[in-house]
Queue: 2 jobs
Job 1
Amino acid sequence: MATNQDKVKELIDLRNQAKLGGGEKRIESQHKKGKYTARERIAMLLDEDSFEEFDMFVTHRCNNFGMEKTKFLGDGVVTGQGTINGRIVFVFAQDFTVFGGALSEMLAQKICKVMDKAMTVGAPIIGLNDSGGARIQEGVNSLAGYAEIFERNILASGVIPQISAIFGPCAGGAVYSPALTDFILMTDQSSYMFVTGPKVVKTVTGEDISTEDLGGAEVHSTKSGVSHFMVENEEEGISLIRDLLSYLPSNNLEEAPMMVCNDPIDRLEDKLNSLIPDNPNLPYNMLEVIEAIVDQGKFLEVHKRYARNIIVGFCRMGGRSVGIIANQPSFYAGVLDIESSRKAARFVRFCDCFNIPILTLVDVPGFLPGRVQEYGGIITHGAKLMFAYGEATVPKVTVTLRKSYGGAHDVMSCKQLRGDFNYAWPTAQIAVMGAKGAIEVLYGKEVAAITDPEAKAKFIAEKEEEYNHAFANPYKAASYGYIDDVIEPRNTRFRVIRAFQSLQTKRVTNPMKKHSNIPL
Ligand code: HXC
């Protein structure tokens, strides 16, 4: 009969066995691919010795294809809780060494359990994905398992932050769990996401395409926008997740943690007074403005390489977490188009879900005109951004630096979309459109009637001058109270922080409803 000491030894042996996942050979093969194992990833992610594992002894219960003879403790996913910078988080890491991390009924149950715990406690859930998708031997049980996870992703949306790192394959319907989360991060050259892989693409469409070109990190960070962050390697990815979480509250009922601010709140940035070129058609880099006004110049840009005509990301101002949305004049003149509208709308909604105040920096010449945009539904996508801003109840401060034209003026957090403080620099131009377009519409017939080219140019120049005098400034808008104050650019940091300070106790609620019907 086994002694109690034997039983303790058995436990230790079983734990050690579970820690080996699919065995040493497969761990070696994982390392050879330049990838870490599930447990190594969790150890890097969490504060030292903070990991508490759940369900180490779970095994699958599938008897198809001789599966009953092959069981691994833990069954292809490592789950549990731990801390990041002292704050509790829940985590699951798919273990590629066990059936390629493929999702079984029991594997899904483990993920669901940790997600449920995260929801009960109100703490972020982080998924580290590296899986061959549905475990083929388990058939429909695997699909049901995925759907259980999807439903939890949906219910957790807007309640706890959900972050997905893709550190290997993520294919088929498996992509939809990450897609339902708030942020996706992909490692360059070692991760991929697609609904159907290159072989199916070849069969169905005849197109030859590599895994990387179809769903690599580069593609999803620049073309599709599926991935919010692209990183060189797993270490960088893990450190980014830790950094990202520092800007977020643990749940929708909390505020993001306040940091000690060593950067003077009233720091003046003289260079901002001369940043905007005199010629309104010349670009400048909006990132310079952002870096000048945020604490320590530190800005975590989201979707950095996607829809670069708009910038979104997190910073701190006076120690408090703030989400920034800013037009980027140095990329397509900062125009709003389908991609930039979608990108910004999603970010605004994330900030609003999690009580993160929003700073909007405006320099927008309008919406991108043309057939491609209209056929692509710019009306709906632009409305999405307007909807997101108008619905948001978090503190909203807007600074118009230069152009703010037409529909784009309204969309970019204007006063009437419940902007709390709307400031403008003296270089702001708030109008229905730019002078050139306006004169063409207003004086088209007169211009056409002038035959002498010199006289025509003179007439246009005079009218443009007249128009610019009337509208290419912030004072018309300020005279109606649409702009609360015209501020000296160098004071921007101080004015914005003070505005957010006064908004700390802001309480606004939307009318009761089941949910809104944002134009999707
Ligand atoms: C069962 C799987 C598996 C799967 C991999 N394995 N994928 N087992 N079900 N889906 C096993 C392999 O048999 C192998 O077992 C081990 O994992 C490692 O796989 P390898 O092929 O040796 O690794 P590698 O060469 O790196 O290739 C990885 C891979 C490939 C590209 C992911 O395994 C692959 O193409 N797998 C199938 C992917 C797929 O089509 N999945 C279904 C997608 S549809 P041994 O014992 O040899 O180590 C889907 C629907 C979800 O997921 C729907 C949700 C709504």
Note: The two ends are 65 Å apart (CA to CA).
Job 2
Amino acid sequence: MDVHESVLQLIGGTPLVRLRTPAGGSAAVYAKVEFASAGGSSKDRIGLRMIEKAERDGLLSPGGTVVEATSGNTGIAVAMVAARKGYRAVVVVSDRISREKLAMLRAFGAEVVVCPGGLPREHPDHPVNAAARIAEETPGAWLAAQYDNPANPEAHYLTTGPEIWRQTGGRVTHLVSCVGTGGTISGAGRYLKEVSGGTVEVVGADPASSVYSGGDGRPYFIEAAGHFRHPETVDDPWPSSYHQDVVDRVLPVTDRDALLSIRRLAREEGLLAGGSSGTALAAALRVGAAAGPGAVVVVVLPDSGRHYLSKYFDDAWMLRMGFLDGDEDGTRLADTV
Ligand code: PMP
């Protein structure tokens, strides 16, 4: 029989899809389509690895509870893996996450705690602090702590990086990825640098006001990418899952460019990707144009546009937020104007 024993075997192993780029001057650009993973994002890889490492380390036992603070996808991954393995999952989110992600968390049986968005890092109700408190107060609970968990970058070092190397036959020249926790770029980037003898260039893509690309930390719309800093936050160290030594440069991308990129991607390539995919894609097209023919650019698309149908693919939302004032991307539906 050609079967899988469980959904856990459907994590990762995602395809690379060639994107059409301007004829002539550009590099080949391939999208690493992470929404093809069972839980719908790159975070499935770390959800599985963090939980299995906790099991091996004796931190999580049958009947236990997995707790995590997340902008959504790590929670979805943790909830999916916990469902299959029989753990309880408590997921702490801010009220800024999309309706679709919230519904998915609940569909997988997670208990969801919603905190107000935009709080300073020190505030007790900041999702990271709330999750730590819940983990402490719940017997048998284990906090996944993706921002500080070495199993996060490790998952991408052991899976995403090797997949990209194998799928391109070792011809990849550039990796472009968003930086949220930094796990993807740090793990996959480190692997590709090592295996290529340092020739692969690793490029971060960042929402324009995020601190990773030198912004002032003002809020932006793209979920799960970059780093927002509340003006009252005093001590806000960058996550230890982000290894800056692996990253050659970080390109800022405006929300508008990111969102118009994914709307075009859906219409022109038939690939429905999320907002941070647009951030990465806009940066990758810049990298590809500058690198020229002969270069092979791989861009990680972390999740699906299905998570954001009520926002980025909703013309009324886009108009309300000022991202579609003319019909600049040609995707606005006539009947919504
Ligand atoms: N985009 C989306 C949609 C994500 O869920 C994440 C993970 N939080 C990222 C980008 C960033 O990936 P990483 O945390 O590995 O840096």
Note: The CA atoms of residues 120 and 232 lie 6 Å apart.
